[in-house]
Each structure stands twice: as C-alpha cells, then as structure tokens.
Amino acid sequence: MKNFRAGVEILMITSTDREQSKVVVSDLSLKMPLLSDSSCQVFKNYRVGQALGAPLPGQFVLDKQGRLSYKHLFSFLDHNASVEDLFDVLDNYIVEQNDYS
Q1: Is 45 within 8 Å of 64 (Cβ atoms)?
Q2: Separation of alpha carbons 4 and 68, rounded Å
Q3: C-alpha span between 28 and 16 (Å, rounded)
Q4: pTM (2 decimals)?
Q5: Which residues of 8-47 are buried (b: 16+ CB within 10 A; e: fewer)?
Q6: Domain range 12-100, CATH architecture
Q7: pLDDT for 1
Q8: Residue 81, Cβ neighbours under 10 Å: how many?
Q9: CB 19 within 8 A of CB 13
Q10: Where are the alpha helices (DSSP H) in the chain?
C-alpha cells in the first residue's frame, strides 16, 4: 500500500456500535482507525443513501480544514471509488499542498 507522509490520515466510519466495531477491526485486521457512528449522524450529514434502514458506503476526502474535496457515493452501477481513484485524489492534494508551501 502507498505510504503518504503529507498529513494524510485514512479512517473508516461504521454504523455499528463500539463493541461490533471492535469485532470488525479484529476480523478484518484493520490497520486504520474505525470510528463508530451508531446514530448515523455523520452518514446523514454527508447525505449518503440508505438501504433497508442502513447507510450505504461512501468515500470522502477532506482537507486539513475539514473541507470536502472529494466525494463518491455508492450506487448500484458504481459501488465504491477505486483505490486508484482515491490515491490520485490524495496525490493531487499532496502536490497542491507542496505548491503552496
């Protein structure tokens, strides 16, 4: 996996409670933070869709100020952003940050 050193942090948010989230981290051997949002407030704030009452996946990139710079919402035709697309977004963000420093 690519290694980013320009203030990039990758994390996941789940709608499961903390105990279920711990099981997910263990079962999947996740190496990134998994945040629990059992009230689904974050999902609502980012306007992700729902299916059978559960939030659908989405991928987001925020800058250091918390501004949204990339968003991909699940659809049945285009499930998730590819890892390559996310790396391209991060690469571009890093280049922009270096241009301004």
Answers
A1: no
A2: 19
A3: 15
A4: 0.66
A5: eeeeebbbeeeeebeeebeeeeeeeebebbeeeebbeeee
A6: 3-Layer(aba) Sandwich (3.40)
A7: 46
A8: 20
A9: no
A10: 18-28, 41-45, 83-100
pLDDT digits (tens, 9 = 90+) for 38-85: 898 988 888 888 888 888 888 888 877 888 888 888 877 778 788 888
φ, ψ at 20 (rounded to 5°): -65, -35
Q: What is the CB neighbour count within 10 angstroms for residue 55? A: 19
pLDDT, tens digit (0-9, with 9 covering 90-100), for 1-50: 455 555 677 778 888 888 988 888 899 888 878 888 889 898 888 888 88
Three-state DSSP at 87 gives: helix
Rounded Cα distance between 94 and 87, Å, is 10
Q: How far is CA 23 from CA 20, 42, 65, 86, in A?
A: 5, 21, 31, 26
